Structures are given as C-alpha cells and as structure tokens.
Fold this sequence. Notes:
single chain, two-stranded antiparallel sheet, 5 helices
Amino acid sequence: MRAGLSAGLALLMLASCASPESRIKKHRELFETYPPEIQQRIKAGEVDVGFTADMVLMAMGKPARKATRTTEQSTQEIWTYGDSGVHPGVGVSIGGGSYGGFGGVSVGGGGGGSYRDRAAIAFESGKVVSVDRVKP
C-alpha cells in the first residue's frame, strides 16, 4: 500500500513539474495561432498582461490555488503558483498520544515540505490584468 502511495505521489509531482514545452506540445495547434512574441514568452514560462487563461496554462501550468477577489470596480480570479520544498524555518512538535488518542499539537513550520507563493496572476473577463512575481 505504501509503495502505491509513493508511486502516486511521484507521478503527481512529475505532472505538476511539466515544462512549457510539454504543455505546448499538447496544444500545438492553439499555440501556433499566437503571434511570435507571445510564443517566445510562453516558451520561456513567462506571462504578461493581456494573456488569456490558455496562454497562462501553457506557460506556467495549472495553478496551485485559485481565488476570487471582488472590489467596487471588478471581480478578479487570482491564480497562485508556488513552490514547495525545504525552506528555512522553525518548528515545534509537542506531545505524543497513546492508545490511538489525540497525539499532541504541532506548532510552527519550515524545515520540510513548506509552501511559498512565487506568482499571483489576476484575470478579469478572461484576460490577465496583473502579474505579481516573487523573486527567489
């Protein structure tokens, strides 16, 4: 059972790490309809204001999270991309359970398996209106 779970997680990680080139290959006909300057940005994994959702998906893949932001002027869909892995931090684990009861409390984070945003892309009416990137 554990080997099956590990294999499934490995496949999921590989799918989420697909390159722009592999995503372009799956949607070659659509990609070829874009102007050359847009094609170059997508190949480089970059997005810009005015891109459609399909362009962003080819360049960056599926977002880790989606949210909606509503202001007086508009409603935006926000796609957030992140990275996971080991990031510096402090964590504390307290307690230990017995007989299958509640085993304690875990406080803090960092050190292993944390998540960090690296980009947030806002859409209005199906087009990118802002791109916020976090430099490593």
